[in-house]
Amino acid sequence: EKGGWSSFMAKEISEEPEAVAKTLLGRAVDGAVHLDDLDPIRERLLTVNRIIIIACGTAAYAGILGKYAIEQWSRLPVEVELAHEFRYRDPVLDDHTLVVSISQSGETMDTLMAVKYAREQGAQVLSICNTQGATIPRESDAVIYTHAGPEVAVASTKAFVAQGTALFLLGLHLATLRGTLSSEAIADLVDDLKAIPEKIERVLETGDRIKTLAGWMADTRSVLFLGRHVGYPIALEGALKLKELAYIHAEGFAAGELKHGPIALIEPGQIVFVIVPSPRDPRSLHPKVVSNIQEIRARGARVIAIAEEGDAAVLPFADEVLHIPLASPLFEPLLAVVPLHIFGMELAAAKGLDVDQPRNLAKSVTVE
Ligand code: M6R
């Protein structure tokens, strides 16, 4: 079943390009988005004035990515909340609220309970799910299935990039519906999204270099991840993978938060991954993150930067630079996450751990 791969996780990372391509299939055509999946809530979507995304773990990080894209394109306010927190805090919901649940398995109890609760309160629930006919889609008003194929390894990888893709499609659909982006802008974004699978292939080719890096770090006790804007959920995802797979203390931060506390953790030898925003990003976050790199480097940390091809500004300050191909800044996280998935897997393998079945974890968490 592993088809010659050393683990399901290795196989599933290799399927990340396909997971994106299949999720786009038939939905991104001729420069426009076609989501027939939304037909059951088509009328209600017109009156939505707010979105709440609910999910757990890696799916919640995909949700943060979705928030940034949906807000930017559709101008609808979006919140992201962990499903187990949402359910128990008496959230304000009404029939103009669209709740979007995200779950690979479609069986996560925390997410299922939150979906049921949201519907009881009168919200519309749209679910993004990778498993046909699972409980969460059955309990929802509409479903966008991700077509990543079955994910067996406990660590979620190809499902994450497929969830990001589905959220991008939803954002572009809402922007079309609300007229908040021109059809030219949508066509450009659709074309760029369709180019992502081939770009992920190119990132996968750097796998050996990441394996070597992981091999050097097998004794590391703590790793930090910094990212900003859409790089922030990628930092969280990189850290979760190290905890879950390699049992290493790892933390992801929003880079802007560094000076509000975490910089005190930086000491000689500390390994810090930095997801560097595109120098082309209109928000001009690139120089801010480069100066974060200088600050942590000055305190003796070892910096591994994930940066766009041709980004020369990070080279003098980083110990290692992993390059990713150019894409629209909102889509770059689908590329930047790939080296971190490989890194988590390779570090676990270097420590001799079971990559597919980490201790204490189940693939789907069917208890609250
Ligand atoms: O099946 P789901 O997407 O609902 O699962 C959610 C989380 O349990 C899951 O993403 C978990 O965080 C992964 N093991 C992370 O790699």
Written description of the protein model:
The chain has 368 residues and is an alpha/beta fold. The protein has 14 helices and twelve strands. The chain has helices at residues 8-14, 16-24, 42-45, 57-74, 83-86, 109-120, 135-138, 158-178, 183-194, 196-204, 207-216, 231-246, 286-298, 333-350; strands spanning 28-29, 32-33, 50-55, 78-82, 97-103, 124-129, 142-145, 222-227, 249-254, 271-275, 302-308, 320-324. The model has no long low-confidence stretch (mean pLDDT 96).
Question: Mind sketching the topology for me?
Answer:
Blueprint: H1 8-14, H2 16-24, E1 28-29, E2 32-33, H3 42-45, E3 50-55, H4 57-74, E4 78-82, H5 83-86, E5 97-103, H6 109-120, E6 124-129, H7 135-138, E7 142-145, H8 158-178, H9 183-194, H10 196-204, H11 207-216, E8 222-227, H12 231-246, E9 249-254, E10 271-275, H13 286-298, E11 302-308, E12 320-324, H14 333-350
Parallel strand pairs: 3-4, 3-5, 5-6, 6-7, 8-9, 8-10, 10-11, 11-12
Antiparallel strand pairs: 1-2
Helix pairs in contact: 2-8, 2-10, 4-8, 4-12, 8-9, 10-14, 11-14, 12-14
Summarize the structure.
This protein has 368 residues and is α/β, with parallel strands linked by helices. Helices cover 43% and strands 17% of the residues.
Percent of residues in β-strands: 15-25%
The side-by-side strand order for the widest beta sheet comes to: 4-3-5-6-7
Largest sheet: 5 strands, parallel
What is the terminal-to-terminal distance? 31 Å
Succession of helices and strands: HHEEHEHEHEHEHEHHHHEHEEHEEH
Q: What is the 3D shape? A: globular
Number of helices: 14
Helix/strand structural class: alpha/beta
**Mean of pLDDT:** 96
